């Protein structure tokens, strides 16, 4: 009899847990020119933390967004799904809501989505990229030209060679985007966005009631980080390439400056005009190399944010961005500010697969009106970028997913 009572109590104790652990449908939508696999790290990590039926399918983004939504909704989004859309994928989800209501997209989390358009889509239809890239090459050629006795073609060629990998990647990246039919829909004044962002829609701005917008904020060395992440597999490699060039240009600055000082000393001792000419030439080279360093360390980001991303006003006011989309578009004013979630330090290509980006989605899952059931011991993202942790002696434990080891817990319980 005691054994029966114990078993009954055990079953009753487990019943609430079993009821709570009903999995939620979660559909992940990738962005323009991407694929469902971009979500693999997030799906693996979030599946270890939450009870979810995850789906991250690929679709052809070389079509207008309205066409994608009308033709692929049932393929991309499960019924009654928490939908997570990256970049253009967030707009696809909102367009499904506009066309079909909230039967599929019952809750929506967007990350890096250009809700008010992507300035870069306009920039790529202009001469801005070519102009900006030309500035950068000239910056890095400024020291070489006098250093090589005013051999302008050779100086320009060396400036171009220093940036060849970066500019080659960016040119291919931009050309691939510009060739896609959906790219016009991303322009801030597109007819698609004008329709989607109507406040008078049956569901204002075509969001389900439960919605959150995640905005990435990584606006330093943006072109180099994007190059590193996409072309080299790690944004730190892009930053490393930038730092190597910075070091080279600082070395050339100091070396030219020391040589210039030597020639000045010789001129002052002999009054031989040759020495004075060499002093002027090497002084100009030193100034050029210093400007090349400044361009790599600072000016390229200013040019990128102002002319490509549109996150810096001509007056100098600087807004957050993820290297591709301004935070003003990722977290638009027509979404309540208490529905913003920040993904700190995330550029556009990291928002689906790096720790802070995944933790921001975790924070969205945990909101009261979404409430995806969490697994016991599955870690947690906290609010907008806080992270779950595991004891130091268990660094391969739950919650991290492949290649995403969580930060260690503080061993001091106080």
Keywords, please?
single chain, 414 residues, alpha/beta, six-stranded parallel sheet, 6 strands, elongated, disordered C terminus
Notes on the protein architecture:
With 414 residues, this protein is an alpha/beta fold. The protein is built from 15 helices and 6 strands. The protein has helices at residues 2-20, 40-49, 65-76, 88-100, 119-123, 128-141, 144-147, 152-162, 164-178, 191-196, 222-232, 235-270, 273-309, 327-330, 355-365; strands at residues 24-29, 52-55, 81-86, 105-111, 210-217, 340-344. Strands 2-1-3-4-5-6 form a 6-stranded parallel sheet, with helices on both faces. Helix 4 (88-100) links the parallel strand 3 and strand 4 (105-111). Helix 3 packs across helix 4 (88-100), helix 11 (222-232) crosses helix 12 (235-270) and helix 12 (235-270) packs antiparallel against helix 13 (273-309). The protein starts with a helix and ends in a 49-residue tail after the last helix. Residues 4-20 and 382-414 have low confidence and may be disordered.
């Amino acid at each position: 009899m005691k054994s029966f009572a114990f078993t009954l109590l055990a079953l009753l104790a487990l019943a609430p847990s079993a009821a709570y652990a009903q999995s939620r449908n979660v559909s992940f939508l990738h962005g323009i020119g991407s694929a469902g696999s971009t979500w693999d790290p997030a799906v693996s990590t979030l599946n270890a933390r939450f009870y979810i039926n995850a789906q991250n399918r690929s679709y052809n983004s070389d079509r207008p967004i309205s066409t994608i939504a009308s033709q692929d909704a049932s393929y991309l989004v499960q019924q009654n799904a928490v939908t997570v859309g990256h970049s253009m994928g967030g707009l696809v989800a909102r367009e499904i809501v506009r066309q079909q209501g909230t039967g599929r997209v019952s809750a929506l989390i967007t990350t890096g989505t250009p809700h008010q358009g992507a300035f870069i889509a306009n920039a790529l239809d202009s001469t801005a990229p070519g102009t900006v890239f030309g500035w950068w090459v000239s910056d890095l050629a400024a020291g070489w030209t006098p250093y090589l006795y005013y051999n302008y073609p050779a100086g320009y060629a060396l400036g171009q060679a220093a940036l060849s990998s970066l500019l080659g990647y960016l040119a291919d990246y931009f050309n691939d985007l510009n060739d896609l039919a959906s790219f016009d829909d991303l322009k801030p004044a597109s007819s698609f966005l004008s329709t989607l962002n109507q406040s008078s829609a049956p569901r204002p701005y075509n969001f389900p009631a439960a919605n959150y917008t995640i905005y990435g904020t990584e606006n330093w060395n943006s072109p180099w980080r994007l190059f590193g992440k996409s072309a080299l597999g790690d944004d730190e490699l892009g930053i490393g390439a930038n730092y190597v060039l910075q070091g080279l240009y600082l070395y050339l600055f100091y070396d030219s400056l020391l040589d210039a000082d030597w020639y000045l000393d010789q001129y002052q001792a002999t009054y031989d005009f040759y020495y004075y000419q060499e002093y002027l030439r090497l002084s100009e080279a030193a100034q050029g190399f210093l400007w090349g360093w400044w361009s790599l360390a600072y000016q390229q980001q200013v040019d990128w944010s102002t002319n490509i991303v549109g996150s810096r006003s001509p007056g100098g006011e600087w807004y957050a961005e993820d290297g591709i989309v301004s935070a003003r578009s990722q977290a638009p004013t027509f979404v309540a500010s208490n529905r913003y979630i920040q993904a700190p330090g995330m550029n556009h290509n990291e928002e689906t697969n790096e720790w802070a980006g995944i933790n921001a989605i975790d924070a969205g899952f945990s909101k009261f009106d979404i409430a995806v059931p969490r697994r016991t011991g599955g870690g947690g993202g906290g609010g907008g970028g806080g992270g779950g942790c595991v004891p130091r002696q268990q660094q391969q434990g739950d919650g991290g997913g492949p290649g995403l080891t969580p930060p260690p817990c503080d061993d001091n319980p106080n």
